[in-house]
Automatic annotation (TrEMBL):
C-type cytochrome. Part of the cbb3-type cytochrome c oxidase complex. InterPro entries: CcoP_N, CcoP_N_sf, Cyt_c-like_dom, Cyt_c-like_dom_sf, Cyt_C_IC, Cyt_c_oxidase_cbb3_su3, Cytochrome_c_Oxidase_Subunit. The chain crosses the membrane at residues 6-25, 56-78. It comes from the Bacteria. Pathway: Energy metabolism; oxidative phosphorylation. This is Cbb3-type cytochrome c oxidase subunit. It comes from Zhongshania marina.
Length: 293
């Protein structure tokens, strides 16, 4: 918060305190006599008394004003005005973060010294990994890493780029960019339909590579997806023969993928997360598809 707003709030508080004090004292009536007075207002024969404020009430009001002034001096806690006790909410928060970081630093040092494959079976480490995943990755991959349209499932055995520790680490560190070119200029609508059917067949009835579409697949697609459509992790080209789909396996979606191309983006995290956290996340993702460990 800028000092302007701190001063603004402090000034408003002081002004209200002064006004309240003035209001209290200017309206105070000290009557020595015991006789009852009225304000002169009469409603249907009911008269309004004009008694002084009860003294217990008056004293409590004064005490709370004194308390407010003392509180304001001791800890305003606003931005650059720490008050006599030197307390600010920001300062308190920073201290707590520093303490928490120190407490976890030791923990993370231990994690760093452990290989991904053994870290993956450390239940405490994985509990922490799940939290980091929830905060940074779940927004795209889902809270259980089950993925969704355009975002790969990280808990199955189907990998675009590979499920070994080093490939997972590379995916997280550097990010990934899937480049599936658009073919609508190369294939006319009939060609697109035939190719869509061919791709569908790859994972169901089996595809006949001697058909015109099969020959076209070998020419246009095999370089990335492999001659049998089983994919290529060097290119991040998905396996088209396994009935697991990044963008959906119905004819409409497959045709979309082929006609317009796809470009899935996994953002790089090396500049967002510490090396220790990425190490822990690597182990976390590693064990998701190996639950028996
Ligand atoms: C903005 C969305 C987004 C976020 C956030 C994100 N990812 Fe991804 N991630 C993707 C997409 C999209 C892909 C697939 C890229 C492609 O299509 O080539 C991917 C791919 C991956 C892969 C490769 C999967 C494979 O099959 O090879 C891994 C591993 C991965 N992400 C882990 C993570 C982790 C761990 C985090 C959290 C630190 C994370 N991702 C955060 C969108 C995201
Ligand atoms: C340059 C390499 C490359 C070529 C050539 C290529 N693809 Fe792809 N294809 C990819 C990549 C990479 C993806 C994943 C895109 C992503 O991650 O967003 C993909 C995705 C797809 C998908 C979506 C898969 C899913 O799981 O939803 C289909 C379908 C597909 N390609 C079919 C084809 C067909 C048919 C051809 C030939 C006409 C072809 N591809 C040619 C690289 C290629």
């Amino acid at each position: 918060m800028s000092s302007f707003w701190s001063i603004w709030i402090i000034a408003l508080t002081v002004i209200s305190l002064v006004l309240i004090t003035w209001l209290l004292f200017s309206n105070r009536k000290i009557t020595g006599s015991k006789e009852t007075q009225t304000t002169g207002h009469v409603y249907d024969g009911i008269e309004e008394y004009d008694n002084p404020l009860p003294s217990w009430w008056f004293k409590m009001f004064v005490v709370s004003i004194v308390f407010a002034v003392a509180y304001l001096i001791a800890f305003p806690g606003l931005g650059n005005f720490p008050g006599l006790l030197n307390w600010t909410s920001v300062g308190k928060w920073e201290k707590e973060v520093a303490e928490a970081e120190q407490a976890t630093a030791e923990l993370y040092k231990g994690f760093m010294a452990t290989e991904v494959t053994s870290l993956a079976s450390d239940r405490n480490a994985m509990r922490l990994g799940k939290r980091i995943f929830a905060n940074n990755c779940a927004i795209c991959h889902g809270i259980n890493a089950e993925g969704s349209y355009g975002f790969p499932n990280l808990s199955d055995h189907d990998w675009l780029y590979g499920g070994d520790a080093e490939q997972i680490r590379a995916s997280i560190n550097q990010g990934r960019s899937g480049v599936m070119p658009a073919w609508k200029n190369m294939l006319d609508n009939n060609g697109l339909e035939a190719m869509t059917q061919y791709v569908k067949n790859l994972s169901s009835t089996g595809a006949d590579s001697t058909t015109p579409a099969g020959k076209q697949f070998a020419m246009l697609c095999a370089a990335c997806h492999g001659p049998d459509g089983s994919g290529n992790q060097m290119m991040g080209a998905p396996n088209l023969a396994d009935n697991i789909w990044l963008y959906g396996g119905d004819a409409g979606q497959i045709k979309q993928s082929i006609a317009n191309g796809r470009n899935g983006q996994m953002p790089a995290h090396h500049d967002k997360l510490s090396e220790e956290k990425i190490h822990l996340l690597t182990a976390y993702v590693y064990q998701l598809s190996r639950p028996s460990r």
